[in-house]
Amino acid sequence: MYQRLLEHLTTAVLTLDRTLRVRWMNPAAEALLATSLGRVQGTRLESLEGENAGVADVLAKALKAFHPFTQREAKLVLAGGDVITVDFTVTPVSDNELLLEIEPRDRLLKISREESLIARQKTVKVLSRGLAHEIKNPLGGIRGAAQLLERDLSDPALTEYTRVIVEEVDRLRDLVDRMLGPHHPCRHESLNIHQVLERVRTLLLAEHPRIDYVRDYDPSLPELIGDEAQLIQAVLNVALNAVQVMEGGNTEAPRLILRTRARRQFTLGGERHRLVCEIAVIDNGPGIPERLRDTLFYPMVSGRDEGSGLGLAIAQSILQQHQGLIESDSEPGHTQFRLLIPLEISCSRSTRNHFPQPPEAP
Asked: How far apart are the two ends of the chain, measured CA to CA in Å?
């Protein structure tokens, strides 16, 4: 009965023997440490050693003193090399058993940042729609007046000027429409996310063949429900931005990594999801300037002189239509955008996201 209760806790719980070998862990611990009980049972948990040997020292101290200990903001190195920040409490249950409770800290900070980002995006969207309305109304009047004027002109040579007016009005209208993002709601269709990435890779390879495109896909991902065309646009906007930054910054040996992973028990915008698809776009370019990091997804904000500043804003809008979010981390030589989309798995079938293997670029 007690094991069933522990299995339903959202707190990561493990039991260890006196040699710090894993006896048992609940599903929350499996999700946090990115491993399974079957893989680590009976072995020393590598996450508690690695770069932070002090964690193992605290566990041994608690067992020797037979007294609970709590440590704040400890660093755990996961099997995949990722480092997470946690608070943990170790409690001796007997001379040969330790109970370990782990609370992630970095994820809580990310949730707070995500909620702030979502709130800012909603504010920007409301302001953008109000601004678009105020702009498009007079544009329609200007266009109509130019067309009426063209009909009354006696000199055909003067119609060139009215056509310029109409064309410029249309250009401004299209710019406003692009700033608002997709016009139609996303379609709810089953799709293979790796086909989306392969399409993006093909488009990029045709225009930017100098980039080294690396694929790191998780073939066990199930299909997700969404709009394939919109997701292609979102991933392409993010990847194209990275490629243009690398080429503009004259990056030596430019490389773009397209990676997919599954995230379990993941919180997006305050809502916990059982399974989330993570699409990572990683480049080795110069990084995002510090002055742009807080406003990166705002419309009309760009780090390039020739950029429109709409690509990332549109991508974020598309992800929000899929109840998802885009996060970014950047430092010189390593910039990562993570597109996070909740997965809805069909009960009738479980389709894996196997992806085609097109021939490698010459």
From this structure: 60
Neighbours of 306 (CB within 10 A): 7
Q: d(Cα 315, Cα 182) in Å, to the nearest integer? A: 10
Neighbouring C-beta atoms of residue 362, cutoff 10 Å = 4
- The encoded tokens of residue 49 equal 């050693």
Which residue in this structure is represented by tokens 């493990």?
14
Compute the distance between CA of residue 58 and CA of residue 88 in angstroms, rounded to an integer.
10
- Tens place of pLDDT per residue across the chain (362 aa): 567 788 888 889 999 988 888 999 999 888 888 788 888 888 876 555 544 556 777 888 888 888 898 888 787 777 666 777 888 899 998 888 889 998 887 766 666 666 666 666 667 666 667 777 777 778 888 888 888 888 888 888 888 888 888 888 888 887 777 666 665 666 788 999 999 999 999 999 989 999 999 999 999 999 998 889 889 989 999 999 999 989 887 788 899 999 999 988 777 766 778 889 999 999 999 988 888 877 777 766 665 555 556 778 888 888 888 888 888 888 889 999 999 999 864 323 334 454 444 444 33
**Residue 30, number of CB atoms within 10 A of its CB:** 19
Question: What is the C-alpha to C-alpha distance for residues 175 and 163, in angstroms, rounded to an integer?
Answer: 18
d(CA 274, CA 290): 34
Categorise residue 181: left if φ over 0, alpha if ψ from -120 to 50, beta otherwise.
left
Side by side, the strands of the sheet bearing 12-17 are 22-25, 12-17, 97-104, 83-94, 69-77
